[in-house]
TrEMBL record:
Xref: CDD domains: fer2 (cd00207), T4MO_e_transfer_like (cd06190)
Protein name: Ferredoxin Oxidoreductase FAD/NAD(P)-binding Oxidoreductase FAD-binding region
UniProt domain FAD-binding FR-type: residue ranges: 106-208
PANTHER family linked: NADH OXIDOREDUCTASE HCR, PROTEIN RFBI
InterPro entries cross-referenced by the UniProt entry: 2Fe-2S_ferredoxin-like_sf, 2Fe-2S_ferredoxin-type, 2Fe2S_fd_BS, Beta-grasp_dom_sf, Cbr1-like_FAD-bd_dom, FAD-bd_FR_type, FNR_nucleotide-bd, MRET
Keywords per UniProt: 2Fe-2S, Iron, Iron-sulfur, Metal-binding, Plasmid
Cofactor(s) required for function per UniProt: FAD
SUPFAM superfamilies: 2Fe-2S ferredoxin-like (SSF54292), Ferredoxin reductase-like, C-terminal NADP-linked domain (SSF52343), Riboflavin synthase domain-like (SSF63380)
One Pfam family hit: Fer2
Any one GO molecular function term: 2 iron, 2 sulfur cluster binding
2Fe-2S ferredoxin-type domain sequence ranges: 8-98
Coiled coil: none
Domain of life: Bacteria
């Protein structure tokens, strides 16, 4: 529906694979739409994981200041797949990796904002009704194009797909960022009934339904949504009926803590679904008494679970500093890499 009918053909050098990129689309997402397993992570120009080499043809760089694109990349004709729109047919060098084969084909739909509700002083839930179906796995994210904002913004879904439920909705739990362009529009300028474009699903940190290990979900700040989606997915998945899920939420102060009520509403609460929270800033908050853990989530997780983490499947989401700290702690504890799943929130 976004196409003017024109598409460019992108050929992978030294292979017989090729795919079409429609006008208005970028290299990475058109490849994924065609089922080509193009490596990536953030989709918004930050991580640098989606680089390819341009062998033949020309591209327009959508966001030249993208932090994931360096001067060295420019010299070597290396581009970010998520920021490159082909000007014509192209040949590129990129090594597909089966890990990135999309479980659900990403698609572009129109969405209507149907509800908002406050979760904490700076997190709100935004619910969108979709013009067409968009199946996704718990833990995945979508790209929202917001009026007047350059570049899409990535937000993780907090709901799950219920078989047969209509109308299709996507729920996002979004933290307001000071002076943020996208969150500024979402919180201050988007009225109920407003239409936006949503493209998804994306992301590799989705619930592994075939793994029967107990689960630890670690959410920091804005990382609430994908971990809630995973908890909901576990509660609804018969194949995971014997799996225990521990949810650990980390905030700065007690008024940041959230998520417990969402877990309490699930079947299995207190029997196999458990919630704990930690705050890093111990200064007493005038409104809330704190009797939970104190410290950063990675140290609290280490204290609570210790070596048992090696036998758990671990999902986490949150700001890059938290992600890096959690990763370091898990490496030190020798938790196998394949048991750890995350997409960083740049
Ligand atoms: C995979 C993923 C999942 C995420 N999930 C959530 C979530 O569930 N909840 C949540 O609250 N936050 C989430 N985030 C963070 C979110 O995407 C935004 O970064 C955050 O809301 C701040 O956006 P902003 O526009 O308000 O801030 P800004 O500072 O205005 O924008 C920051 C973001 O926009 C991109 N950007 C800035 N300028 C441009 C430009 N000119 N062209 C293109 N891109 C530009 C940057 O790469 C950066 O990602 C997620 C991020 C990622 C990568
Ligand atoms: S920079 Fe393109 S996926 Fe992160």
């Amino acid at each position: 529906m976004h196409s003017d009918g024109h598409a460019n053909r992108i050929t992978l050098a030294a292979s017989d694979q090729s795919f079409e990129c429609e006008a208005g689309d970028v290299m990475l997402r058109s490849a994924l739409r065609a089922g080509v397993a193009f490596p990536y992570e953030c989709n918004v120009g930050a991580c640098g994981n989606c680089k390819f080499e341009l062998i033949e043809g020309e591209v327009d760089v959508v966001w030249p200041e993208a932090p994931g694109w360096t001067a060295k990349d420019r010299e070597r004709r290396r581009y970010l797949g998520c920021q490159s729109a082909p000007r014509g047919d192209c040949t590129i060098k990129m090594r597909p990796s089966a890990h990135y084969a999309p479980k659900h084909t990403p698609r572009r739909v129109t969405a209507t904002l149907v509800a908002r509700r406050e979760i904490t002083h700076d997190i709100e839930e935004f619910r969108f009704e979709l013009s067409a179906d968009m199946p996704f796995e718990p833990g995945q994210y979508a790209l929202l194009t917001l009026p007047g904002v350059k570049g899409p913004r990535a937000y993780s879904m907090s709901n799950i797909v219920n078989a047969g439920s209509q109308p299709r909705e996507l729920h996002f739990q979004i933290r307001r960022v000071a002076n943020g362009q996208g969150t500024g529009v979402l919180f201050d300028a988007l009225d109920i009934g407003a239409h936006i474009d949503i493209d998804g699903p994306y992301g590799m940190a989705y619930l592994r339904r075939d793994v029967k290990r107990d689960i630890l979900c670690i959410a920091g700040g804005s990382g609430l949504a994908p971990m809630i989606s995973i908890a909901r997915g576990v509660a609804a998945e018969p194949a995971l009926g014997d799996v225990k899920l521990h949810f650990l939420y980390g905030g700065r102060t007690p008024r940041d803590v959230c998520g417990r009520d969402m877990l309490e509403a699930l079947p299995g609460w207190a029997e196999r679904l458990h919630f704990q929270a930690a705050v890093s800033d111990v200064t007493p908050d005038s409104e809330t008494v704190w009797d939970g853990h104190v410290g950063f989530v990675h140290t609290v997780a280490e204290t609570l679970f210790g070596e048992a983490l090696r036998d758990m499947e671990i999902y986490f989401a949150g700001p890059p500093a938290m992600g890096a700290a959690v990763q370091r702690a898990l490496v030190a504890l020798k938790v196998p890499f394949e048991q750890v799943h995350f997409d960083q929130f740049y």
